[in-house]
Amino acid sequence: MRDAAEALGPLLGLPDDRPFLRFDPEAGPDAPTYKLPVVNRFVRDRPVAWVDDELGPDAVARADERDQPTLLIQPDPRIGLMDEQVEELLSFATRRSPRPCAAEL
Predict the structure, then answer these.
(1) Which residues form the domain of 20?
(2) Which of 53, 70, 81, 82 is the Cys-Cys partner for 63 at CB 3.0 to 4.6 Å?
């Protein structure tokens, strides 16, 4: 949410005014990935790279059925985002943007 955007944005060179999503863990306590409905509404039919340490089988199934390019990255919460995962994200963004820019992630 906002804390992550403020903490990661400057490290990744992202603009301060980019959107962020708000999640309510209590909204879907029985769903494997409680964030999925909010992410689906935000993403709609656009390509998306989703980085989250809490991606369940429902998120993977949704990614597989989407018509738009979808990249899921699930870092180990004990380690964090690894260099290889960052490279994968940058490669995904570069393939989808006329200008290779981390702000497109």
Answers:
(1) 2-104
(2) 70
Report the amino acid identity of residue 66.
Answer: R
53-62 as b/e: b if 16+ CB within 10 A: eebbeebeeb
* DSSP calls for the chain: -HHHHHHHHHHHT--TT-------TTT-TTSSSTTHHHHHHHHTTS-EEEE-S---HHHHHHHHH-SS-EEEE--BTTTB--HHHHHHHHHHHHHH-SS--GGG-
- The rounded distance, in Å, linking the Cα atoms of 49 and 52 is 10
Q: Structurally, how many domains does the chain consist of?
A: 1
Q: Which residue has the tokens 């985002």?
A: 81
Closest CA to 27 of 37, 17, 19, 18: 37
**pLDDT digits over 15-53, tens only?**
777 777 888 777 766 778 999 999 999 999 999 999 999
Extract the tokens encoding 84. 């290889």
